UniProtKB/TrEMBL annotation, chains A, B:
Record InterPro entries: AGR/TXD, Thioredoxin-like_sf
Native organism: Mola mola (Ocean sunfish)
Primary location: endoplasmic reticulum
GO CC annotation, single: endoplasmic reticulum
A Pfam family assignment: Thioredoxin_7
Protein name: Anterior gradient 2, protein disulphide isomerase family member
Gene3D superfamilies: Glutaredoxin
Keyword field: Endoplasmic reticulum, Secreted, Signal
Taxonomic superkingdom: Eukaryota
Localization, UniProt: Endoplasmic reticulum; Secreted
Family per record: Belongs to the AGR family.
Signal peptide: 1-20
């Protein structure tokens, strides 16, 4: 009898905590992650300021991805990017990473315009590496899913740090 | 026989996809969410620029939380904040929300210094509401867990929008 009462009590407690939490009228949402699908095992900076700070203090290059959730080119690049273990491993161990769906006020991050997807590298000396680009002359920082090898080679370029002028 | 072969094949595919993903040497990580525990059912802006844009375009006030993961005062406030259904409901329906663990470059967001936890309101006209504060004269934008009623009353103040001067 005691056991039954305890079970009922535990059940009621469980129910009240399940129903007690705020729920939007439109139904339960899955919380958005900082990775936004670009690599769930990487530790993503939230803002550009934070990413620059990490880059400087750890002396690691920064990779910034500009993308949009409803852009098929961004989605296609994200798929190969997140599934490429070589990219993910190098980024995890050697880079600071940031992905943004909203532009920053820093014009250096859009050397040839604001388009997505676009990938910029920033040196720990806080210099945007406008010299590291992909293979499209009209959108120098764009990458297609088939450009993974170029991206990897650019990551290696970014790892050769500029001499800090600070 | 066909069925067995198919099962083995499916098993191998499942295994290869489970073991094929990049795994950090330190073990699997749980991806950080944009909410960082301040309300998993709210839709959080990622950056201040993004939050200001949402606030202006939706004509909703913005609530900005500055906090730190390893700060016990931040943690204590987060617990009551995330579990208070009235706060969560009003924020979800009437506000734009942003939480930051790294300071922005905008000095208006630190009228009396950079400390955590600290909560600032911003009007859709992009005016930081330095007039909406808590009950501590030395840290005007700090809230303790017992200050939930003051926070709610301040949220209601913030909902009375300033006249846009734009």
């Amino acid at each position: 009898m005691m056991k039954v009462a305890l079970s009922v009590l535990l059940f009621l407690v469980a129910m009240s905590s399940a129903f007690g939490k705020y729920m939007p009228k439109t139904g339960k949402r899955i919380p958005e992650t900082l990775s936004r699908g670009w690599g769930d095992q990487l530790i993503w900076a939230q803002t550009y300021e934070e990413a620059l700070y990490w880059s400087r203090s750890r002396n690691k290059p920064l990779l910034v991805i500009f993308h949009l959730e409803n852009c098929p080119h961004s989605q296609a690049l994200k798929k190969v990017f997140s599934e490429d273990n070589e990219i993910q491993k190098i980024l995890d161990e050697q880079f600071v990473v940031l992905n943004l769906v909203y532009e920053t006020t820093d014009k250096h991050l859009s050397p040839d315009g604001q388009y997505v997807p676009r990938i910029l590298f920033v040196d720990p000396s806080m210099t945007v590496r406008a010299d590291i680009n992909g293979r499209y002359s009209n959108r120098m920082y764009a990458y297609e899913p088939s450009d993974v090898k170029i991206l990897l080679s650019n990551m290696k370029k970014a790892q050769k740090l500029l001499k800090s002028e600070l």
